[in-house]
């Protein structure tokens, strides 16, 4: 009986851990998959920890960041509130853990476990984070 109760509690705890719980006004990621070779010159800055590169894809471009230990994170540069025609800005030198939407000055945290969470009070939609898998000397960026 105890195991059944524990199982039900565990299922309920993880039930809310999906993109389906985003507010209705939040943008959902479109379905795609991109594979890039890490030895491309466009990724030279990404060879060190916290190094980054911008690539085409997603809604308004994707920022890919080397999180260290062979891990990479990627975020779409579209403003999560969809109130801006310009892509979000990433200032690697001065604010390496923030994406900023210049139209409404909202900011979004970047990093392992942060998931693009809004850092500005009053904003609830996170930046779109993509899945990144390192496969040998390449990375695959996708929304699944």
TrEMBL record:
<keyword id="KW-0456">Lyase</keyword>
<protein>
    <submittedName>
        <fullName>Phosphoribosylaminoimidazole carboxylase</fullName>
        <ecNumber>4.1.1.21</ecNumber>
    </submittedName>
</protein>
<dbReference type="GO" id="GO:0004638">
    <property type="term" value="F:phosphoribosylaminoimidazole carboxylase activity"/>
</dbReference>
């Amino acid at each position: 009986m105890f195991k059944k109760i524990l199982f039900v509690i565990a299922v309920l705890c993880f039930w809310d851990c999906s993109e389906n719980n985003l507010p209705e006004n939040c943008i959902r990621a479109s379905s795609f998959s991109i594979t890039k070779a890490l030895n491309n010159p466009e990724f030279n800055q990404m060879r060190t920890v916290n190094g980054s590169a911008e690539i085409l894809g997603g809604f308004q471009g994707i920022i890919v960041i080397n999180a260290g230990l062979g891990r990479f994170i990627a975020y779409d540069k579209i403003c999560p509130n969809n109130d801006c025609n310009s892509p979000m800005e990433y200032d690697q030198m001065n604010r390496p853990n923030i994406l900023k939407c210049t139209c409404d000055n909202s900011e979004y945290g970047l990093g392992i476990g942060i998931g693009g969470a809004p850092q500005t009070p009053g904003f609830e939609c996170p930046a779109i984070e993509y899945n990144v898998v390192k496969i040998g000397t390449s990375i695959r960026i996708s929304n699944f």
